Predict the structure.
Amino acid sequence: MNFELTEQQQMLQQSVREFAEKELLPGVIERDEKSEFPVEAFKELGKRGWLGLPFPKELGGSEGGYMGYVLAVEEISKVDASMGISFSVATSLCAGGINNFATEEQKKKYIPRILSGESFGSFGLTEPNAGSDAGGVRTVAVKQGDHYVINGSKCFITNGPLSDIFLIIALTDPEKGQKGLSAFIVEKDFPGFRVGKIENKMGIRAAQVSELFFEDMIVPAENLLGGVEEQGFKAAMKALDGGRIGVAAQGLGIAEGAFEIARKYMMERIQFGKPIAKQQYLAFKMAELEVEIEQAKYILYRAALEKDAGRPYTIPAAKAKLVCTNAAMHVTTECVQLLGGNGYMKDYHVERMMRDAKITQIYEGTNEIQKLVISGGIFR
Ligand code: CAA
């Protein structure tokens, strides 16, 4: 397997890095404090073709593959993990989830709007009683003539208050449980759609996450994903396979961002008459963290390459999500420690990165769920 980045991928990496440092770094601390999302910067990701990296030109994509997409999410997340998850959810969970199963008309109608940055996209699977047990969805869709009437609610929906387009999982046959789930493309203007409470979170505070309520919501029958009922669970699982690679890239970016701050700090911070980088115990700690980051990177890039090659990637995605997000949590925690008292202060960024890292071990399937998926592959 070749991990050499092409010249095009290196240029993409450089452009996204410059954008993140110039457009996202200023104000990132204030946005975290106020829970404010930089909508215009997100739209810029669309204008530059980055939201559309893994999609074909005919859908408004820029054909950079999943590998290009991973590099972009990684670079963004080094600086602003809230933007990283907003990007990942729009591109891989919403647009990707639609693309996997939609009819040609549905693809053409919705995907270009998300990729251009004109419309935010969200993915609605989780409910109060359907977290790790994704098949526990209670939202119900009843067909009435040329439309469905949907009643229920979703929680923890990333981009919820900002999105125009939602991929929603609901029961069309409650008797069948998980097998009776179907997927719908929902627009925020559909009658009966309402955004609920906007969450006040520990980390990724600039990302907008909310409840959604459907109260006799009218959804045209043509918005049933793929025009086929009862493929909702598979549609959700497949969307999550792609999404988990995005979260892994977010985790890796957070780890790398914190590591770089610690590296620079350690060369400048003088204690006992020399830079703390010269203290062997601390330098060895950085050696361990660098190896951890590199291992995670290879597992992640492998998952992206498997997807780009059209091979099965459920298990590689779960491994990447597990390893990269654990690295994010461990590396950021160590970096706060390496910066000492300064690490605990907001001005130095690493405390925010540590808070941001925590959710990456939880969303898009907890890391315990990733182990379930990986062990399922071992004992197949
Ligand atoms: N791709 C396609 N089909 C899949 C699949 C996949 N990756 N995984 C499972 N399936 C299919 C199976 O083949 C099976 O099909 P058949 O019935 O035809 O045989 C069916 O789905 C059921 O599979 P399982 O028996 O394996 O399902 P399960 O009930 O044991 O659950 C699970 C599996 C892995 C635990 C799943 O429930 C799961 O992933 N849970 C975690 C949910 C999750 O990740 N939530 C994240 C919310 S979204 C979010 O966080 C977004 C955000 O805003 C940031």
